[in-house]
């Protein structure tokens, strides 16, 4: 898992959060909504069958 | 695509990003008994939803896309997050044209999954044809060579050809289907309202089915 994450450029910021290509993906919709409200940036939600923080996604 | 640094920079600058697992992805494991194990996922699928801060969905991008096309499409839709509901719905109604040519999707998945589906095939399985006549090639039993020769002709590596074919299908077939889905509503849907129909009707992933269409019935002796 650690090796796969390293090879794919996947970094772990905090539990549930994933860093991909230098961008942090939250895993808490309510937190993301609050950050969207505060920043004025729209939300981009990535739905997937599988998990972003695992090899199988 | 998300590991691409250019994509990451663009997303980080312009959006608050959130991922959500809809369900675990099914895995097919073949244990060769000699210490070698082959594991593949099946029925995996993804979609990006552009939303307002309250979770209202204004646009959606299902399927596989190449980085440049994805960023261009997302950038074109970004103003929708600030537009009035009526304007967003009007944009979707205008864009809901029927695609020209065969409505095939999931071509790269078909290279891996169609042979697995052939092994798993049982009478009465889904034909892989969803609403609007969109064909999920990965749900149709076939050999890898058959998928390659029929749907991925040309030069370049198999990965490159499959990604290009999927990206073309995502924009030509899936995006108009998204616009038609939005056109069903008289209001803009929230995420919880939007996910089920998008995955079931556009991507042919029934999230209410714990077997995702891979189990039809129990036949004694099978």
Walk me through this protein's architecture.
The complex is a heterodimer of chains A (57) and B (222). Chain A contains 2 helices and 4 strands. With 57 residues, chain A is an alpha+beta fold. Chain A has a 3-stranded antiparallel β-sheet with strand order 1-2-3. In chain A, a hairpin with a 2-residue loop joins strand 2 and strand 3. The relative contact order of chain A is 0.17. Chain B has 222 residues and is an alpha+beta fold. Chain B has 7 helices and 7 strands, in the order αβββββααβαβααα. In chain B, helix 3 crosses helix 6, helix 4 runs antiparallel to helix 5 and helix 6 (158-183) packs across helix 7 (191-202). Chain B is globular and about 60 Å long. Chains A and B meet through strand 3, helix 2 and strand 4 of A and helix 1, strand 1, strand 4 and helix 7 of B. Strand 4 of chain A pairs antiparallel with strand 4 (46-51) of chain B.
């Amino acid at each position: 898992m650690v090796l796969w994450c390293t090879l794919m450029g996947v970094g772990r910021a905090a539990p549930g959060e994933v860093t991909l290509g230098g961008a942090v993906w939250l895993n808490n919709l309510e937190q993301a909504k609050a950050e969207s409200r505060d920043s004025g940036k729209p939300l981009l939600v990535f739905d997937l069958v599988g998990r972003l923080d695992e090899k199988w996604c | 695509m998300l590991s691409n640094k250019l994509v990451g920079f663009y997303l980080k600058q312009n959006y608050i990003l959130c991922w959500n697992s809809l369900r675990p992805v099914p895995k097919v494991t073949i244990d060769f008994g000699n210490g070698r194990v082959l594991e593949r996922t099946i029925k995996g699928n993804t979609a990006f939803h552009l939303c307002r801060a309250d979770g209202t969905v204004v646009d959606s991008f299902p399927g596989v896309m190449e980085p440049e096309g994805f960023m261009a499409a997302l950038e074109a839709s970004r103003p929708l997050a600030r537009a009035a509901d009526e304007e967003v719905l009007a944009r979707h109604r205008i864009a809901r044209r029927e695609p020209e040519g065969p409505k095939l999707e999931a071509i790269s998945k078909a290279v891996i999954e169609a042979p697995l589906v052939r092994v798993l095939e049982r009478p009465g399985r889904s034909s892989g044809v969803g609403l609007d006549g969109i064909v999920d090639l990965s749900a149709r039993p076939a050999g890898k060579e058959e998928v390659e020769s029929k749907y991925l002709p040309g030069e370049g590596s198999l990965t490159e050809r499959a990604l290009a074919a999927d990206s073309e299908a995502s924009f030509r077939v899936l995006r108009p289907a998204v616009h038609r889905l939005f056109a069903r509503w008289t209001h803009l849907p929230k995420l919880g309202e939007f996910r089920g129909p998008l995955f079931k009707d556009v991507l042919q992933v029934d999230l209410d089915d714990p077997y995702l269409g891979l189990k039809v019935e129990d036949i004694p002796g099978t």
